Amino acid sequence: MDTRKSLGKSDETDDGEDIAHDRKFVAAIGRAFEILRAFRPGEGPLSNNELSSATGLPKATVSRLTHTLLRLGYLNYVDAGGKYEPSPSILALGYCVLSNMRVRQLARDHMQKLSEHALASVGLASRDRLSMIYVAMTHGSNLRTMRHDLGTRVTLENSAVGRAFLAGVTEKERLYFYDHFERRHREKWPAIRQRIEECIAEVNERGFCLVDGEWQRDTRAVAAPIIWPDGENVLAMNCVAPTFQISADKLVKDVGPRLAHVCRGLTPMMGE
Which domains are seen in the chain, by residue range? Predict the structure, then answer.
């Protein structure tokens, strides 16, 4: 699994040097996707100026790209504010990906049972640059106190699901991520790296890791990796809830082992 080719500027991981030597890379297509990636859930429409700031692209380039994406039907123009927003046509691209992810179908019932048992949210996440993005989510409580849902992103280095993913990749791949994390966090990186290493040790020892109040102060979660038999792909699954809703003790002694068992059971199916 080559992680380097899919990192980009929007996650503060500019791979311009690699791209500059890639003669097959079509820059215009790459820039168009950077425009689409600039839109975030809950943040609303964006103007050309805002898109330029978010992507680092010149305003003139952004203007041409938004016009093209508008003509293709992937953006809508919000006339009242002179801004753009993604159109429902983008869902067709995402649905194709999700419908072909066999692991979602295999994991769904197990996730639902675990979320109902824990009265918490259980999510399946895949790496997206320096984030984890949820590709499946179940909820076991009517409270719905967690705002996680399909398509929600969380940071790789501070979340339980991200650290479980890092536990599942090779050491070479992990060090590549570490290089980007160090540039992002600077003087805070040594402490963050220590916690990541502790979580990796937890995964190696008991099959899952616990993150309590680090990603969000009032949230705790356990997570475990799902590693394809050939090692070419790694996903991660977590169980997450507000601190008032579930104790760390219950997560470690009850929910975590169940979660690790589910992930271990899914692993051999990925090779079929």
Answer: 4-92 (1.10.10.10), 101-271 (3.30.450.40)
